Amino acid sequence: MTKSPLSERPRKSPQDLRSHRWYGVNDMRSFGHRSRTAQMGYHRTDYAGKPVIAIINTWSDINPCHSHFKQRVEEVKRGIWQAGGFPVEMPAMSLSEPFQKPTTMLYRNLLAMEAEELLRSYPADGVVLMGGCDKTTPALLMGAISMNLPSIFVPAGPMLRGDYKGKFLGSGSDTWKYWAELRAGNISASDWQDIEDGIARSAGHCMTMGTASTMTSATETLGFTLAGAASIPAPDARHGQMASLSGKAIVEMVWHDMKPSDFLTQASFDNAVTAVLALGGSTNAIVHLIAMSRRAGFALDLDRFDALARKTPLLANLRPSGAFLMEDFYYAGGLRALLWQIRDLLSLDQLTCTGQSLFEQVKDAEIYHDEVIRRRDNPLIEGGSLAVLRGNLAPNGAVIKPSAMEPHLRRHQGPAVVFKDYNDMASRIDEPGLHIDANSVIVLQSAGPQGAPGMPEWGQLPIPQKLLKQGVRDMVRISDARMSGTSYGACVLHVSPESHIGGPLALVQDGDIIRLDVEDRRIDLMISETELAARKAAWVAPPAKFSRGYGALYLKHIQQADQGCDFDFLQAEPARSDEPEIH
Predict the structure, then answer these.
(1) Strand partners, 522
(2) Which of 45, 192, 250, 573 is deepest in the core (most CB within 10 A)?
């Protein structure tokens, strides 16, 4: 049910602020809080009776996607000061997709926990969440949804287009493309060096419709940002303006107590899924949005993704499903223009964090380049940019991105070539004697939430070098891994249950026939149930990957891909922001 906008909500008094428990009480503990704040150079008039705004900043020297956050956080603070708030920057773990091994996904839930605990344990009345690099967005939002304080998200924004010999490059998508050409012998090492030097030219996250832009766009559609925030390129001056305006907005949100629970609904999550589908967004959005929705108390599942995918057209002509990049998307009208084109598929009366409805945020948004953002009567495809597969190989589901695969592979049958883990695949995939051809189905085991561990982006399995030299550029590939949103190909992903816990993927053997039928939403291992049961009975569970620390906690509590890969103990009732003070 849609709830009241900001203007109709009662305004808090200073005594109603959560931070009043720290700063406004005349006791010894509050004396300590005030005296230590004075130690940092602040006068009592800087914060007395004002909302304390936490700024959770995921800047790091090793996260290039967020390298501009040192400046952006000052712009956020400027907005908070101007609106009469008291900003407090709180650094948090930076999940750097290009560098962190085995995968940032292993640590998404750790950042979510850190964000939640920072907000619970400090005098925060509201929060500005600063993220953008793939897993930072869902992690910060999961923590904020669970803590349920007024929250606004400042997306990092995409980097500028890459450049190579007069051609635009897209991060990830063109990396895979030209890596294949290098391995096939079609470009030189010098060409590869030029690509390396020119593909990432500025601060900001991937400028393709990868996981970063997918999740920040979903976040805007959910209502966690200012209108149009997710599309602005990171180096654009308007990005700094957005950061400052977000700082101003959160202060008003605190005074009117506009929390995530006041604007998130089942319909707003449907809106986010629909936006992802119209964008040709990353398959990773499935895992993240399921986890986020469950934090908010809503039952989003794989079947809902598939149902919405069947009726949602693909309108964003962006790599890897299309031709253009996020910088082009912004100039063409951005997310607001795309959402206005699919307004009949959205619940536009859903509120956003600022109290505006989604309708007010997107109404009359124009398309300025209708090859970049297609109009409803000219979609790239009519529907089905994502598909959920089921069958005896994936009883709990698997996903594929039909818009990014060669059409002739949508109905395919071929013999399996099985790799027991990533190291096995890396060591054998280019062996001249590997028994494989273009009709084969490449299978990777032990790449899921527990098996890898962390469910890395290994799902775009490499095509063997000898086949690349024959001109093969796509094959059916199956794993319990994820793949980068910048990737493409006939890759069946997120197979659940995963092989490491005895899912059917663990039972596939070389030469087994596998049948894929995207239209019928099927992925099947063509052996008898008797043979499958016999293999299951003979299967031996592998040893755990971790025995101590966070890794041991992770393995004990991680859920499967179809459940969002959250920890089982974090999906209870959201925390209350008015819980008793812990002394």
Answers:
(1) 390, 517
(2) 250
